[in-house]
Specification:
By secondary structure, this protein is mostly helical. Helix 2 runs antiparallel to helix 3. The radius of gyration is 21 Å and the shape is globular. The N and C termini lie far apart (69 Å).
Length: 198
Amino acid sequence: MPRSIYLPDLDGETTMKMLTGLAMMLATAAALPAAAQTPPPPPPPEAKTQAMPYVMASGMSDLYEINSSQIALQKAQSPAVKRFANMMIKEHQKTTAKTMAAAKKAGLNPTPPMLDAGATASINELQTAAPGDFDRIYLAQQLPAHQAALDLQQSYASGGDQAALRANAKAAAPIVKRHVDMVTKMQAGDMKGGNHSM
């Protein structure tokens, strides 16, 4: 019976090294096309109307923004991207504090925000990005992440089940909308020029 794959007669250790190396090359090649396509996943549907899922999703969104932007302060090449990242840290720390205060006002006792596996993968992608690719990948993550956050805030503001949190979402939505607009302009314009007012 003919063999479909020919492997020369090598000892087991050499064969295993070759196969491991091939598997690593294939995994790396498979990951490359997705380099700028790994934003954190959108929040679950129940977060748009239910208090505790909303608080957790909003907190995780903020935490992703803070953590990704802290990496950007270290790795970004463009001064405009660094200024944007600095603003993201400050503004998302504020929105987290306001959301937690609104949750307590609504009688909830939420745990501190945590990243899920998808958001952690996005952070890992930023940590391992080559310096020349970082700004593009960071902004490519920021746009869908902020669009999902904007949808969350707008949806909960109009249909959420707790008044204090609806007011919080209504206040957060224009902040997130401004971030969406800024990222869109940065992607369309010259990031190196630093001529973006932030």
